[in-house]
Amino acid sequence: MKASSMLMRKRLLTAFVALAVVFVALFGRLFYIQIVDGGFLRAKAAEQWYRDLPLKATRGRMLDCNGNVIADSKDVFTLYARPNAVKDKAKTAEAISSALGLDYDNVFDKLNTSVGEVTIKRKIDADVALKLRQQDSLSGLYYTLDTQRNYPYMSNMSQILGFTNIDNVGQSGLESYYDKYLTGVDGFAYTSTDMAGREVDGSVTKYLPGIPGCDITLSVDANIQSFAYDAVTAACTEFSAKSAQMVVMDVNTGGILAMAKSPGFDLNDPPRNDLDLLNDLSRNTMIVDMYEPGSTFKIFTTAAAIEAGVVTDNDTFFCAGSRTVDGQRIRCWRSIGHGSQHLADGVKNSCNCVFMDLALRMGTSRFYSALKSFGLGQKTGVDFSGESSGMLMKESNVKTVDLARIGFGQAVAVTPLQLITGVCSVVNGGTLYRPYLVASVDSYDGKNLATRQPIAVRQTVSESTSQKMREYLTGVVASGGGSKAGVVGYAIGGKTGTAQKYAGSGGIAQGKYISSFIGFAPADNPKYAVLMIVDEPQGYMYYGSLVAAPYAGKVFAKIFDYKNLPPTMLPEREYTIMPDVVDESVESAVAALEKIGLHVEIAGEGEGKNVISQTPIPGERVATNDSVLIRC
Q1: What are phi and psi of 444, to 5 degrees?
Q2: Rounded to 5 degrees, what angle do the CA atoms 59, 65, 70 make?
Q3: What dihedral angle (degrees, nearest 10) is formed by the CA atoms of 366, 371, 372, 378?
């Protein structure tokens, strides 16, 4: 009896322990479900009873330096359907396809799927979506507010601004570089539904609004950008050029005021069906591509030589039409030569022989040190993706003949942005600034998050060298090859360039040139720098003095008027009549034209030949010191 009682107690204890274990396990599981995993399970339950639709956040705006909107977003809609909630699928498919221009069969198939929700179409204009929504007989359709990028200036700034994809993610240009600032935080709309995904009668849709992206303000001036865009478009048309591009920069800050290229494309309608074309047209060649600068590079050679003390105003140079270096004959652009000249004349005449001599006087080490100081062979640090560093030969590989060629702008490659940035340092007193496109970033509610201050990178030349260079380059426009960039009443400095292009084999591409002009104004106290480049102008008028300089002058004139800059000089231009020099020898024709104060460009090898045509034609009124062209 005693043994039986003890056995019973053991059994009861075992049962109690087992129950306790089960109870603890159940309690633990309940605790895990309600506390640990509760949030996840509640969310899963909500998914069965609610449908959420995204509310795309508005992308931040882009503004020019004056506050003009140059990129913003417009409201569009996305149409969704919940097939289980569509009562008359055929009628609904017909209404949708008719309103939105979609294929009926494709829409009908979407409405007959077993999925809970399908996207019918995105980026629907507001007025179209409203008309469709007003058809009360349609059921199971839902609309969410979306945004689409809008560019008021269309093709005017296509290479700067770039574009976004259908999800409003930046794909190129500043849209891509500053995407994380421009992108906002999306919101959601929640609607009560049954297990089949049908909206519950009397349910209330709840909204969690998105947070708009930041606004960015550019250094670009929309008015100056328009001047530049008009110039490159007109130049492309006039000379049937492959392309034309222009950069306008604030000389004293590095701020980019304009950056235009033709051909371009309407940012509101990019050619997405032709990716090769889209990539080509959207490529900002002023930052990402390099080219051989030709005579515009002579600005650096001159400044470096003056700063190094290897030349004075009184030094005399002689040009017989060529120099022989390391046994190679290197021609001056003017095959009949420039004769004896001082440095100021050499700069004005753009004589290759002068700049070969200057480079050889400095030597490779000293010259390269100066070029690197100007920022050549290295990225400028501009706020834009894909910047090229240009190309300088490895210093240890430079031969004497290479050094001579570099002196006048051959055997070296720069980006347009590098060139104008370095030249600004030459004429602004010697300070090299880091170029930039975006000046400030502000939150959607107007709070300033960042403001860019001009960044001085280094001193390139002394103030005295800078002043001397301003004088020399003013002479180029006043009475040299840059005369067509002149604006009556204003002092402008600058330099032309005409560079031959190279074929894929490495040889010279016959008949293909890059014509350019870089200038600054006002010459005594520079504020604006303009670089104009025309790639492959057709015909025999390929000189930078005749192709690029005139358009730079037109832009300068518009800037002076826009900024209300008064003339600083009295109009002193004199005029002469263009004589008939056809059939004369090149030597006598040049002498006759220079005697009456004209700057002569020669197309063709002039030595020992006769003139076959001239521009302007005989009898035309021509301004003294203007550039004219003879062909031989």
Answers
A1: -60, -25
A2: 40
A3: -150
**355 vs 365: CA distance, rounded Å:** 16
Predicted TM-score (pTM) of this structure: 0.84
Answer whether the bond into residue 263 is a cis peptide, omega within 30°: yes
E-assigned strands of 193-326?
206-208, 215-218, 243-250, 256-262, 316-319, 322-325
The Cα–Cα gap between 93 and 71 comes to 35
Q: Given this model, what pLDDT does residue 40 score?
A: 60
pLDDT reported for residue 415? 97
CA 71 – CA 170 distance, rounded (Å): 12
Residues in Cβ contact with 237 at an 8 Å cutoff, skipping those fewer than 6 apart: none
Residue pointed to by tokens 């004896």: 340
Single-letter amino acid, residue 494: G
Beta strand 328-331 pairing with 339-342: unpaired
Residue stretches of the chain with pLDDT short of 50: 195-197
Q: CA dist 521 to 250, 304, 424, 434, 490, Å?
A: 10, 22, 11, 20, 8
The span from the CA of 459 to the CA of 465, in Å, is 12
User: Quick one: tokens of 268?
Assistant: 């509101």
- Compute the distance between CA of residue 148 and CA of residue 124 in angstroms, rounded to an integer: 9
Pairing of β 621-623 and β 575-577: antiparallel
Rounded CA gap, 593 and 540, in Å?
19
What pLDDT shows up at residue 36? 61
Q: CA distances (Å), 562 to each of 155, 231, 464, 548, 556, in order?
A: 22, 16, 31, 21, 10
Name the catalytic one among 172, 219, 243, 295: 295
ω into 522 cis (within 30 of 0): yes
* Residue of 613, 343, 349 lying closest to 495 (CA atoms): 349
Q: What are phi and psi of 485, to 5 degrees?
A: -90, -5
Beta strands in 322-369 (DSSP E): 322-325, 328-331, 339-342
- CB neighbours (10 Å) of residue 344? 16
Give one DSSP letter per residue of 88-118, joined into a string. Answer: -HHHHHHHHHHHHT--HHHHHHHHT-SSS-E
Report the alpha-carbon distance of residue 194 to residue 196 in Å, rounded: 5
Q: Which two tokens stand for residue 308?
A: 């190094």
Torsions phi, psi for 394 (to 5 deg): -60, 130
How many residues make up the chain in this entry?
A: 632
pLDDT at 408: 96
CA-based Rg of the chain, rounded to a whole angstrom?
A: 35
295 as an active site residue: the answer is: yes
| Strand, coil or helix: 535 | strand
In which element (H, E) is residue 78 found? strand 69-81
b/e 499-513 (16+ beta carbons within 10 angstroms → b)? bebeeeeeeeeeebb
For tokens 């992206």, the residue is 213
**Contact yes or no for 213/183 (Cβ under 8 A):** yes
What 3-state class would DSSP assign to 495? Answer: strand
Residue 391: alpha-carbon gap to chain centroid = 20
Say how far apart CA 245 and CA 547 lie, in whole Å: 12
Residue 43 is predicted with a pLDDT of 54
| Alpha-carbon distance values, 218 to 32, 128, 182, 229 (Å) | 54, 34, 13, 17
Report whether the peptide linkage leading into residue 212 is cis, meaning its omega lies within 30 degrees of zero. no
Count how many Cα atoms sit within 13 Å of the Cα of residue 96 in the half-sphere of its side chain: 32
Sheet containing strand 187-192, edge to edge, reads: 50-55, 187-192, 206-208
